Amino acid sequence: MGAVMGTFSSLQTKQRRPSKDIAWWYYQYQRDKIEDELEMTMVCHRPEGLEQLEAQTNFTKRELQVLYRGFKNECPSGVVNEETFKQIYAQFFPHGDASMYAHYLFHAFDTTQTGSVKFEDFVTALSILLRGTVHEKLRWTFNLYDINKDGYINKEEMMDIVKAIYDMMGKYTYPVLKEDTPRQHVDIFFQKMDKNKDGIVTLDEFLESCQEDDNIMRSLQLFQNVM
């Protein structure tokens, strides 16, 4: 332990900055802090404290700062409505029609159904999709497919989501898809997931089917990559 502490002290001595450098770094920190505070007064919605979001998500404070700056650049008011969300999302899929999928995705992000997505909503969902457990990702995906939020997925809902994904990918899907491909895809999914053949898929059925079938998991992973 003494050797470790001695090495640490030596490094501190070698790397110690002059006091004027410390003052400069402190000045930069204070300036950025003031700029952030001024920027926050210009928005309609002020997000929760970064410490609270750090505790609620799988992002570090620094990552949250970067994400917030990007969110604020696209949405200066601090919130995004559905129309703006569609416009932003369409930029990533210029060869297809992303409007319907963006519609469904927006409502999955808008968990309080207020008609707008706040920064907290955005990073909470992003945290699950990027760094959540398999179970958390599947629950979030189930919520996306459950369009009417009745706690079940019917075949029409699944068809709407899958078709929206294919429409978004556009003519550059490979291999080139036949017109009835989405329906075939949904029929296969639903046959495997609807365990008791009652015409609906519950959350438990969805979780069980996805985790026991590698093909379904791979397909869902492909769909999650466009979120």
Automatic annotation (TrEMBL):
InterPro entries: EF-hand-dom_pair, EF_Hand_1_Ca_BS, EF_hand_dom, Recoverin. Keywords: Calcium, Cell membrane, Ion channel, Ion transport, Membrane, Metal-binding, Potassium, Potassium channel, Potassium transport, Repeat, Transport, Voltage-gated channel. Pfam families: EF-hand_7 (PF13499). Gene3D superfamilies: EF-hand (1.10.238.10). Residues 97-132, 133-168, 181-216 form the EF-hand domain. GO terms for molecular function: calcium ion binding; potassium channel activity; potassium channel regulator activity; transmembrane transporter binding. GO terms for cellular component: voltage-gated potassium channel complex. The keyword Nucleus does not apply. One of its GO terms (biological process) is regulation of potassium ion transmembrane transport. Belongs to the recoverin family. This is Potassium voltage-gated channel interacting protein 1. The gene is KCNIP1.
